[in-house]
Amino acid sequence: MVARGGADRIGAMQIDFVSLVLLPAALAFIMFSLGLGLTGGDFARIVRQPRALLVGMLCHFVLLPLAAYALIRLFGITGAFAVGFMILAACPTGTTSNLLTFLARGDVALALSFTAVASVLTIFTLPLIVSWSLQQFMGGGRAVSAPAGPMMAQVFLILGVPVALGMLMRRLKPQSALRLEPVATKVSTVLFIVIVLLAVIKNWVLLTANFATLAPMAVVLNLSMLACGFAVAWLARLSRRQSITLGIESAVQNATLALVIASTVLQDEAMAIPGAIYGVLMYAGGLLFAFVARRFVDTPVAAAPSVHAA
Questions:
Q1: Where are the transmembrane segments (predicted)?
Q2: pLDDT digits (tens, 9 = 90+) for 111-163
């Protein structure tokens, strides 16, 4: 019994290390690598394209959470899994949207700018949506202790601070930042893959038991938001490139942040399952959308963007 108890404690310590140290550190590095590719001009570009920004905000911060909530009800998903999907919907756009936008011949400058702005706005919106979701789907089943203020501070530390440090390095030491960015991008990609794999391994039983239930909703949410983002932008009379970009920005989520919020902030591994599933499946829909959309854009973009992990 003593040996078994010791093994259980070691296993718990390993899980705590992954959830409390490895996941936040990996996400912070990913966001730092994003900051290395950003300048003040990326934010200034948004000012020159306010309509595209407003349409993107409508799709990403309003229609996406509403679509997730509607599909949760439609598919009959409850409890921790429902909260997990709402956490995912509340996260900012994944930074690999830059690559998908490039492949789709969309507006890469808009993608970079919107990714940066969405990451900043999420510091304020994500805690509110997550707190509401906990009350809505789990308020009657357990005590809910996720005040928006402390959660906002945690999100700021793992999103805002690393991005700001990356941008600061880009401004103070531009040559060093430009040399470091390609390496940081590759490391970030590996970290993203490792994070998803760890989430899958840690929650293998939950994942296999619920994949058939959760995967269909993940696919429907992804495809519907790709179509919704494109359609709303098109109806707003944005260019075809901008419409393609906002379709991608509305559907490609920062699954890494969803895993960190579920595992580290809320300490509920079941809530991480929707993020792990969506984090893999969203690339299938995104690539399909990109290769279909590029057929309707005649002139290829001039240069590849800086590409970061989600």
A1: 20-40, 52-72, 78-101, 108-130, 150-168, 189-207, 213-236, 248-266, 272-293
A2: 877 887 888 888 888 888 988 998 899 865 444 455 556 666 767 777 678 87
Q: Which residue has the tokens 């905000």?
A: 57
- Listed by start position, the domains of the chain span 2-296
What's the chain's Rg over C-alpha atoms? 19
The amino acid sitting at 35 is G
Q: Give CA–CA dist 154/79, Å, rounded.
A: 23
Residue type, 84: G
Do residues 126 and 160 touch, judged by C-beta distance below 8 A?
no
Rounded Cα distance between 1 and 4, Å, is 5
Please say whether the structural domain 2-296 has been given the CATH code 1.20.1440.230.
no
Q: Is 92 exposed, middle or buried (0-12, 13-18, 19+ CB in 10 A)?
A: buried
Percentage of the chain lying above the pLDDT 70 cut: 78
Q: How far is CA 263 from CA 11, 37, 86, 195, 225, in A?
A: 15, 28, 15, 11, 26
N-to-C CA span, the chain: 43
